[in-house]
């Protein structure tokens, strides 16, 4: 067993996963810290109207997930994964610090998006290289990694949001930049625990059967990506129109104090941290009993649960009428929403990473973020309807979008299961030369 694959006492996973977890945690702290402030900053300080702010929010998040397509290809072909992470993190930190100046607002958004292009696909694409093909810990690694996303997401609104609301938005943006630098330092300090860059032999021309498998694999990934695109149109409203409703439609009173509006965005990542261990234990019990749902079935279940969460908001808005709904409704929404998220998003990322061709790990993971790019554009357009529809009608629309994504996922489950089984058989048949890091059959 290589040093990178040795277990650690932390979740019983390789030490390298701990480094990737912590690096990702601080990167997500910076992203969610900035995202928690962005809509409020545009509407309250830059005085951009709601429709334009929602569309700009959706456009920014979309392009932050489009640049990884180019960045993943650059990492796979020229830079390598480690250099791409280091350069990307450095550029992103610069962008966050530029957010502290009103004059460089648009330049800052572009800088963060460009750095994200190198960072985002190359960090999770290193997870698979930490494990041998038959390592039983590999299927759960992406759920553990996803906890890191949400530890950062939980801390960000509390720290950056509080600084922004109490002392000024620019202090919150500055804290986000410091978080990005912390992630970079952890990655550099722990790089010895990460797997070396793999060198692959020139592969022979694939057989007809191999080409057929590749076509089916790409077809399944495309279909999953389209379903996720649709789903993100509803999912991404959490940082957009749901955040606006938390400000204008929710009674945030708790005794004699008012709960800061940005704090509600910490509920989702906090619940991810709390719920994930129980959900993993539940899935492990079902797997032991040979009753586990397929990855695509889990994703469909997650989309349906998110649809139910938005129906709860529709009920809350209807019950409030022209007044404000209790913050308890919003807390209940985040509980249901988070359970659905855990079913769909880590499983989707894991599928793209597990089905990736050996030479195109970062590029294939980047394709997952391409679906998020398209979905974020969709979310920006859906967000413009907030001012046009009643709140009840709008939340019902979001529920319908999530339910439609679930239906599409169920339609592609059978071909997806066949492709997954074939790809896993191929992976298990491979062995790795530990000296050269060259997969051979």
Give short descriptive properties of this protein:
Growth Hormone, Chain: A; 441 residues; two-stranded parallel sheet; mainly alpha; two-stranded antiparallel sheet
Q: Concise description?
A:
The chain is mainly alpha-helical. The protein has helices spanning 15-44, 50-79, 81-98, 105-122, 138-166, 169-189, 208-235, 241-248, 264-288, 295-320, 327-354, 361-383, 391-411, 413-428, and strands at residues 250-251, 253-254, 257-258, 325-326, 431-433, 438-440. A two-stranded parallel sheet has the order 1-4. Strands 2-3 form a two-stranded antiparallel sheet. Strands 5-6 form a two-stranded antiparallel ribbon.
Detailed description of the structure:
With 441 residues, the chain is mostly helical. It is built from 14 helices and six strands. The strands form three sheets. A two-stranded parallel ribbon has the order 1-4. The longest helix is centred in the first third of the chain and has 30 residues, at 15-44. The chain starts with 14 loop residues before the first helix and ends with a strand.
């Amino acid at each position: 067993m290589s040093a990178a694959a040795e277990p650690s006492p932390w979740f019983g996973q390789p030490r390298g996963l701990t480094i990737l977890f912590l690096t990702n945690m601080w990167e997500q702290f910076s992203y969610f810290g900035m995202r928690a402030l962005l809509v409020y900053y545009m509407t309250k300080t830059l005085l951009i109207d709601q429709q334009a702010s929602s569309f700009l929010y959706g456009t920014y998040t979309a392009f932050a997930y489009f640049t990884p397509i180019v960045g993943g290809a650059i990492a796979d072909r020229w830079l390598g994964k480690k250099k791409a992470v280091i350069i990307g993190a450095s550029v992103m930190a610069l962008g966050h610090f530029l957010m502290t100046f009103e004059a460089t607002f648009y330049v800052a958004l572009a800088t963060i998006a460009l750095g994200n292009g190198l960072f985002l696909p190359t960090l999770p694409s290193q997870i698979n290289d930490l494990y041998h093909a038959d390592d039983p810990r590999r299927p759960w690694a992406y759920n553990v990694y996803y906890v890191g996303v949400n530890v950062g997401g939980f801390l960000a609104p509390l720290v950056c949001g509080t600084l922004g609301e109490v002392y000024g938005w620019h202090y919150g943006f500055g804290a986000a930049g410091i978080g990005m630098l912390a992630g970079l330092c952890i990655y550099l300090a722990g790089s010895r625990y990460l797997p070396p860059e793999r060198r692959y032999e020139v592969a022979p021309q694939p057989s007809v059967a191999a080409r057929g498998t590749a076509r089916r694999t790409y077809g399944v990934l495309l279909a999953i990506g389209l379903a996720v695109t649709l789903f993100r149109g509803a999912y991404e409203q959490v940082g957009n129109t749901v955040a606006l409703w938390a400000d204008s439609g929710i009674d945030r009173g708790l005794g004699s104090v008012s709960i800061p509006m940005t704090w509600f965005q910490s509920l989702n990542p906090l619940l991810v941290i709390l719920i994930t261990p129980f959900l993993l234990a539940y899935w492990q019990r079902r797997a032991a009993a040979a009753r586990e749902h397929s990855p695509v079935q889990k994703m469909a279940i997650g989309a349906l649960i998110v649809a139910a969460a938005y129906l709860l908001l529709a009920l809350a808005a209807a019950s409030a009428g022209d007044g404000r709904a209790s913050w308890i409704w919003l807390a209940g929404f985040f509980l249901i929403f988070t359970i659905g998220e855990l079913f769909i998003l880590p499983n989707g990322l894991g599928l793209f990473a597990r089905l990736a061709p050996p030479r195109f790990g970062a590029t294939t993971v980047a394709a997952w973020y391409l679906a998020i790019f398209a979905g974020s554009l969709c979310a920006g357009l859906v967000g413009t309807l907030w001012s046009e529809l009643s709140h009840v009608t709008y939340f019902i629309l979001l529920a319908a979008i999530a339910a439609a994504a679930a239906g599409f996922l169920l339609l592609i489950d059978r071909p997806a299961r066949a492709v997954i089984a074939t790809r896993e058989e191929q992976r298990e048949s491979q062995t790795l030369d530990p000296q050269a890091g060259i997969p051979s059959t």
